[in-house]
Amino acid sequence: MYFESSSNVTLLFDFWNVHGPGGMVLSVFVVLLLTVIYELLKVWKTTLEKQSKPPPLTPVPGTFSLTPPCLSPVFEHPVSSSSLTNSPSEVCLAPTDLTAPTVVATLSANSWLLHSFQTGVHVVHVVLGYMLMLCVMSYNVWIFLGVMVGSALGYFLSFPLLGLRK
């Protein structure tokens, strides 16, 4: 197979038959918009993943905290055989005074809904990606250029939405 620059092509479905330059311009524009949407979905997926990260765990007031520094063994002289050298200190076993509220039931329901929404966005993203791949596999130069320009334009427009710049 090789790329051709004909204005006659069938894209994805039988009803998307392109005959002539006007239809090709419209088809390239539609493919370009689909590619921009694909890039925006990619950024949206990343944003949703950031939102779905669980909050840091906070101990419940009145419970004991065994933090990693408290569990690290204290090594003394090899001759010393005290059994208390590898045990946590009294400071590490003291009750914590953190009074952060914990909302477990609401968090669970919201995380399930968010995960379901993420799954739907992922499915749309994958389907759109495969459709664009099939458009490129029509081996039409104009459709290929529409996908490439749409990808560049979509990335250019969506990158500032990521908030990665400092």
From TrEMBL:
Keyword Transport included in the entry's annotation: yes
Keyword match Membrane: yes
GO cellular component: late endosome membrane
Protein topology in the membrane: Multi-pass membrane protein
Molecular function GO terms recorded: copper ion transmembrane transporter activity
InterPro entries listed in its UniProt record: Cop_transporter
Chain segments annotated as transmembrane: 20-41, 139-164
Location in the cell: Late endosome membrane; Membrane
Protein name: Copper transport protein
Source organism of the structure: Electrophorus electricus (Electric eel)
Taxonomic lineage from the root: Eukaryota, Metazoa, Chordata, Craniata, Vertebrata
